[in-house]
Amino acid sequence: MAAAPAPLPAAVAGWWERVNGSPAWQDGIFGGLAVLYGIIAAASFIQVARIQRRVPEYGWTTQKVFQLLNFVVNGARCSIFACRRLVQQVNPPIFQHVILDLPGLAFFTTYAVLALFWAEILYQARGLMTDRLRSGFYTINGIVYALQGFLWLCLWWNPNHSMLVISKLFIAGLSFFTALGFLVYGGRLFLMLKYFPLDSKGRQQKLREVGKVASICFCCFLARCIMMCFNAFNKEADLDVLYHPVLNFFYYLLVEILPSSLVLYILRRIPAKLQISQYQPLSSG
Fold first, then answer.
1. What is the Cβ-side half-sphere exposure of residue 196, based on CA atoms within 13 angstroms?
2. Mind listing the pLDDT tens digit for each residue in 240-262?
3. CA distances (Å), 157 to each of 94, 166, 170, 218, 240, in order?
4. C-alpha span between 13 and 278 (Å, rounded)
5. For the chain, how far is it from start to end, CA to CA, in angstroms?
6. pTM for the whole thing?
7. What sequence ranges are listed for the domain THH1/TOM1/TOM3 (predicted)?
8. What is the DSSP letter of 281?
């Protein structure tokens, strides 16, 4: 008979409980998340300021809106993690769910703007009108926020575990369809660019840019979907409590901080400054 595996030392077996139960570790981990989100928010704000200074005549372009929404989402996350103990004491508890869930919905809207931009490029390349895309974007976002608001009201009216599971599965489903959107529109745009002539200006750079961003966003939202499903059915994996700082750190690092940092780095280029042609009078000679 094979020998039974030796039990793990008590110091190793209980490290998870000790870290999660330590107020010092809780404050340190949540403070570290606040710093990371603050850095991303500051980088997004600087990008908005750079674009506005470089080409103020362009108005609110998709790139500027995307960067501004990143600043809002990451700034909100930074504030929430910096004040996590105060958030955990908010009453009634439904307001805790609103505070913790709202940045996740804004994160969805932020990256839906990027998917909308790619879809508009595909439609314009085929000579199709893009008005329906924008109206569809606003409609889908309105429905998503309305459904989430309805779930919050139901959770407030009847705060049981089943309603909490439904609310988390709604975020999981939303993440899945967002990942699917990046797979469809990002993949189609990648293939369209791939079949452009090899000597097309900026083809290779745009090809790499779309391929990397689409892959990162697809993996990010798919991982978000899997983690939210796990979170919904496993009480020990609850992300909304103060006593799971390690789980919170890895979750937000993998599904928001790293993807946002990589996407912002890849899309760091800002528009070139407009060159106004100077007309000179002809020589009389």
1. 17
2. 777 788 888 999 999 999 999 99
3. 9, 14, 18, 35, 19
4. 74
5. 107
6. 0.86
7. 13-282
8. P
